[in-house]
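Researcher: Before we compare anything, I want clean individual predictions. No alignment, no superposition, just each chain on its own. First chain goes here; please echo the sequence and then give the C-alpha cells.
Model: Echoing the first chain and its structure:
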Amino acid sequence: MRWLACTSLCLTVAFSTSIVAQDVRSSTTTAELSGMALSLVESSPECLLQWQGHGKTGEVKLQMPPPCQFHQGRDGVVRVVASQGKQYILVESARRVKDPAQGCITFVRALAIALRTVRVSPHVSRVATCPPFQWDEMMFTALFEK
C-alpha cells in the first residue's frame, strides 16, 4: 500500500492522466461536467453535494465543514483530471487555525464522474496548507484507493 497524504481504489501500474478544461462550466460552488450539474450547499455542520443530470438526482453529506468549494486551476476554472475513463474533481474546505503563523487546515475530497454517475471518494484528506494551492494529479484519484 502506498503512503500518501491521503489514503483511499487501487490504481493500475500504467495509467494516464490529463487535465481537461473544456466542457466544464463552473463557479466555486457549481459545476457542470459530462452532463451532470453539481452544486455545493452549506448545510450545518457539513457541506452537502447535490447533483442532477441524465435523469438522475442525488445528494450526499461530504463530512467537511462549510464553506466548501470546487478546486480551481490557476485560470479560475474548476480543474478536472481525466483518468481511466473517469473525470475527477476536488472539493476543498479550508479554515485558518488560531495561530495565523500555522496557516490552515484544509479538507479535500474527490468526486469521480463516469457512466452518468457521481461517486464520492471514501476518504477525506486533511492537509496543513492554505488555498489557493495546485494539487498534483495523484490527489484527484488517490482518495479512491483502498
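Researcher: Okay. Second chain, same rules.
Model: Second chain and its structure:
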Amino acid sequence: MAKQCGECGIKLGFRSLNHIDGVDYCDECAPRIKADSVKRKELQKAGVQDIFVVTMSDPPDKLVHKTLGPVSARAVVKLDILQDFFVNFMDDFGGRSGAVQRYFKKAEKAALQELRIEAAIVGANGVVDLRANYDLMEMKQGKIILVNMTGTAVRAATAQDSVTGPPGTVG
C-alpha cells in the first residue's frame, strides 16, 4: 500500500524522505510543515503565557484590531489504574475524586498551553470566544480524559494603549 502525504493526501510511492514528527509529507508540503514544527517547538520552550485567553467576544479591557481566524487545541490524559477504579466507584455511588479532578486540571492546562501556541503561530496576541469541552472516554486500555478548546485568534491592544498609543510611540 502506497503512503500518502499527511497534509494534502497525494500518493508518495514507496519511499518518503520527508518524515516529520512521525508523519510522511510530499516535497511541496514538507517545508511548510517543518517550519511550523520548528516554530511550535521554539514557542513551547519560550512560553506563550502573555497571550490572553477569554471566554467573551469583546473583553472590556482589550480593543480587537484584527481577527486572525479560529484556533483549536486538544489534550488527552490517561487515567492510571487507581483513578480508573475511583471513576467506576463514583459512577456507582456518586461523589467526587480529587485525584480525577487533578487529571482534568492537568489536561485543561495542557490544552490551554497548546491553544496559546496555535494563536502565536498565526501571529495573535490573544484568543477570544473560548469554548472548552471535557470528555471522559472509555478505551480498551482504560479511561482517558479529553479536553478540546476552540476560540478566535486576534490581534488586540489594551484600552489604555488606544488612548496613549502603542508602547514606544508618542501620541
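Researcher: What stands out in the second chain?
Model: The first helix runs from residue 30 to 46. Additionally, The mean pLDDT is 81.
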